[in-house]
Every structure is written in C-alpha cells, then in structure tokens.
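Justification of resources, computational component.

The compute hours requested in this renewal are based largely on the per-chain cost of generating structure records like the one below. Each record pairs the submitted sequence with a full structure-token output. That output is archived, and it is also reused by downstream analysis tasks.
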Amino acid sequence: MRNKLIFSLAIVGVLAGLVAAFIFGLERRAQPPVFPPATSPYVTSIFANGIIESDQTSGSNINVYPEVSGPVTQVLVKEGQTVGAGAALLKIDDSVQKKTTAQLHSQAEAAGALLSELKAQPRKETLAIASAQVVLAEANVKAARDQYQKDRAAYDADAHSISKSVLDMAEDALLQADAGLLVAHKQFDLTKAGAWSYDIQNQQKTYDALNEAYEAADALLVKYTIKAQNDGVVLALNATASSYVSPEGVYDTYTQGQDPVLVLGPPQEYLAVRCFVDEILVSRLPNALSIRAQMSVRGSDIKVPLEFVRVQPYVSPKIELSNERQEQVDLRVLPVIFRFRKQDAPVYPGQEVDVYIGH
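The structure output for this chain reads:
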C-alpha cells in the first residue's frame, strides 16, 4: 500500500512538471507602449535634458525676495494672474516702520523750524527791546552825570557842604551808568546782527541729517509692499497671510529650506526651454545659423519644434534639474536656450522635457 502511494505521488509530480514546462515555455508577446518612445527626428543629433522656463532676454524666471522682514498682512495676487509693472503683489506688516518714519519726520520738521528761526533773526520785537534798553541806559547816564556835576560843584564851592564819600559815590554811579550804556549798545549790535553763522551752519547740518534719515525711513517703508518690476505672470506664490518672510525668502516646511516669496515670469506668449548639453557633446553642437531642435514632452507623444535663441556661454555643474549643490566635477553642462509658442504644447514652467538638437 505504501509503495502504491509513493508511485502515485511520483506520477503526479511528473505531470505537474510537464504542465509547468509547457506553460513557461509559451512565447509571450510584449505589451505595446502606451505612447511611442521619444526618437530623434534628425539623422545626426545630440540629446539633452531641458526645463521649461519663461521666455526672457536673459536669466530665467524671476525669483522675488523682500528687502525687509516681517509677517505678511495681505496677498494681493494669485497664481497665474497677469500683473503690470508697479502692481502691488503683497504687503508686509509695516506698523513699526510707519511710527519710526513719522517720528523722524517730526524731528526733521522741528530742526527745520529752528533753522528758519535762526535765519529770520533778528526778530523785530527783540530788536525793539534792545533799542529800548539803549535809551534806558542813556537816561541812566544823564541822571548819573547830572547828580555828579551837582555834587562836584557843591564840593568845589564848599568842601564842608557834602562829604567826599558822597562825591565818590556819585562819580562811581556815573562810571557804572557809562558802562551800562556801553553794554546796551553792544547788546543792540549783537541782536541786530542776528544768529551767528556757525549756529546756522550747525543747525543746517542737523536738519539735513534728520531729513535724510526721514527720507531713508520713508524709502524703506515703501519696500514693505512688494511690487512687480515688469509686466508678467505670477508663476508661484509661496507665502500666505501671516507667513513670516525675510530677505532669505519664506521657510518651506516640506523641503526645510528657503523658497522665494514669489516667482514671476514675463507675459507667456512664448515659453523657453533651457537645455543642458553635456560638456563632452559641446563640440558636436551645430552652428547657430543651422541649429534645429525638437522637444518631446515626457509621458506623451507631443513633439514641438523649437526656435534657437542663444547659448549661455558658461559651462557649469548641472544643478538646475537636480537642485543638488554638491555635484561631481564631471557632471558639467552648457545651457542652450530655445523657445516655442505656449499654445503649441500644454506645458508649464518648471516641467522637464527631452530635447534633440540637430541640423
């Protein structure tokens, strides 16, 4: 009985092996691709990775960073919105800067008022008082002189009529009155001369310094509203109301790095493609007059002919696509820029594409 069981299991194993061999030996057809793979349309060509950008005469997309720090109080635009030059994009809390600017303005106005006062001297009322003091001093001199002359005449007529002490006191009073008259004249001349030139110069410099400080504070206050420098389109908006921004940008909790507050591009009738040609292929680039290129959109069968714009004549590490700041020294590329009409392909700035360059 045991031998029959073993024999049956052996037959089953053989049959299972034959069936498995038949199944695995069947030829399987490869599944057709979802879309045709990218191929070069040229007889001879070189391949390059590319990234979609805004079409600009120089540089790439415009990364906007504020010149001041603070929480965002108001966002005035949205992504994809077309803006004109000078349009306000977002506002940063400027309450402290407003108070500082107002304080400096008041200080400059106070210094300006004091400067005007110095330049307007002498004041007619002050001059009138100085003139009256001269008249009073002259009257004092006349009274002292008359008293002295009377005492002198009496003493000369009879030395016993008045004491020598009284005569000396009358003479001293006359001398004091003469000195008072001299002081009154000097005071009148000083008042009439107005403010000292050195005082005016010092106050002028004080006013200028405070006024410049006010103008600097006022210019800084303007920077709390970020404005578009040129006509363009808002490509990315990385800040919201209450977000804290600084000249380094805005903190991204996902990447744990700093992003620009906004990314702007010019009006997007055209888009640019920045291709990165490996330095070992640079010598195979066609002449600028005969260069042609075709862009293939990844994940589709869309192919778009490109118009050559320029070569950025500087070979650098390929960091634009990887965003890695530590690249191997042999991964260096030459940027070549093409462009195409935006309506020719449903792509957006920042998207990667494949580019074939031929002639």
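DSSP finds five helices and 17 strands in the chain. The mean pLDDT is 87.
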